[in-house]
């Protein structure tokens, strides 16, 4: 009996070892750790999608993310409290001088969001700038209903705001009715006010608002990729020093994004890859 039990236990252990071996055949299983990210609220959907998809390729890596705004995220990176600083804009000269390295992982379209009841569907870049600088104040001036335009924007720490104002060359000249702290809150505000206009990441557009065409071009992955939709900005995952100098876990994040599966994640959340 003892011999049979011993043989049985040996068999069970052998099967167990084979099972363990098969579950760790993934060559990436040896890379592990927690990667801390901080920054852009516009990149929340991307980071969330990466957190869900990465365990398939890197089962021992987890992402811990905060969404405090682009500028705050880069400050956290420089201070050493984040491994990756997420910014929905290009890095500033002083950030680069502090050692932050700009790693562009995707291109995002900035959609001009309005209430679905608005009878204006297309706008020129010049008209959009004039709305945000207070020169155009009523939708009737653009062929719409007699409705005051309520200009919604992001807070001063927002990468979306920085990119939007820079592209339209209206930095420091905007006259906002309200400045909102998050992308989702901009969508909610525009949806609730018939005359409102706001700018948000393209992937945040839902059926509560509509995206206007700009210069006759509707925002989409295709028009962003071919450059015909001009209101677009980079999604940056900044590091202190080059990617090659980072921990194995941080390098794995960038390796995954560059992979076929990672590019599918970008596409799924409405972004254009740069690889």
- End-to-end CA span: 63 Å
How would you characterize the largest beta sheet? 11 strands, mixed
CATH homologous superfamily annotation of the largest domain: Periplasmic binding protein-like II
From the 3D coordinates, which CATH architecture of the largest domain would you assign? 3-Layer(aba) Sandwich
Spatial extent as radius of gyration: 23 Å
- The CATH topology of the largest domain, please? D-Maltodextrin-Binding Protein, domain 2
Shape: elongated
Average pLDDT metric: 89
- Tell me the series of helices and strands, N- to C-terminal: HEHEHEHEEEHEHEHEEEHEHHE
Please mark out the parts with pLDDT under 50 across 5 or more consecutive residues, or reply none: 1-25
Fraction of residues in β-strands:
15-25%
Query: How many strand elements?
Result: 13
What is the number of independent domains? 2
Put simply, the count of helices is: 10
By secondary-structure content and strand pairing, the structural class works out as: alpha/beta
Text of the CATH class of the largest domain: Alpha Beta
Q: Approximately how much helix is present in the residues? A: 25-40%
